[in-house]
Amino acid sequence: MLPQRFDQAKPFLTLGIALLAWLLIPTTVKRVARAGFFELQAPLQTTASYLRDLQDFWALKTRSKNELIEVGRDLARLNAAYEARLQQDAALRAELARLESILKLPTPPGFRAEPARVVLRDFTSWWQRLVIRKGANHGLTVGAPVIYAGGVVGRIREVHTYTAVVELVSSPGVRLAASVEGDTRPISYQGGVNPSYGPAVGLVEYVPLDVFVTPATPRRLVTSGLGGVFPPNLAIGDLIKVEPSSDGLFKTGEVRLDAGLSALTEVTVLVPEPEIAPAAPRSPSPPPRAR
Fold first, then answer.
1. Residue 31's pLDDT is what?
2. Which of 10, 131, 148, 244 is surrounded by the most beta carbons within 10 Å?
3. Which stretches of the chain are DSSP H helices?
4. How many domains does the chain divide into?
């Protein structure tokens, strides 16, 4: 009877010993083991991503010429619109540089745009993180902001050799300074607790009392630029609900995030550029001695 009971309890005993051993392992060893396991998975995930791109390429090859002509026309219109915006952007940058030189203002930190394909999305935490196909090999750093055509995606949480993990703006771990579009007063934004596959929302605090919104008349929430992580005026979502906070000094509210976050295929990482220190003024050379 005892040997039979021991055989039945053997799996639980083995599991208990394994858990105890894992708890006794130093944290540094656990971190190294986790990073090594992630690096072991990275080639498989990256290869699968390249295969999906190849599959999409051959699927597009089956399209008719008429469809390709229509798409080419649409792209030509978009390119023309982007060219006009690029010219406006260049003019605004030149005017900004002129005003900075007149007022002797410090130049804000610059960013290098690094596009990256999305490798996979964590299905267990759909609204928390995704993995992109670039890492330390392209100079990505932890904390770098990630954006796309619809606005803010999130920020880099982990950087590995060939991949990086992005924490989405919908994650409760992301907090940033925001403001209502057209209003410079800062608002605190934080990702909400979102169910998988449901619409993503975020939460805001310290909303001024004179801000009124409804789901039918939302207001755009954008980054304020405070903190130096995200550039200003990047779209976060739509502020659809506000109510007075417990202290009555401000309001709290709910932000509806862009539905495009659930179908991202490519993002852009804003890698901070190192600041170039101004060259020290050279002292004048002494006059030559008379012989």
1. 60
2. 131
3. 2-24, 27-61, 65-103
4. 2
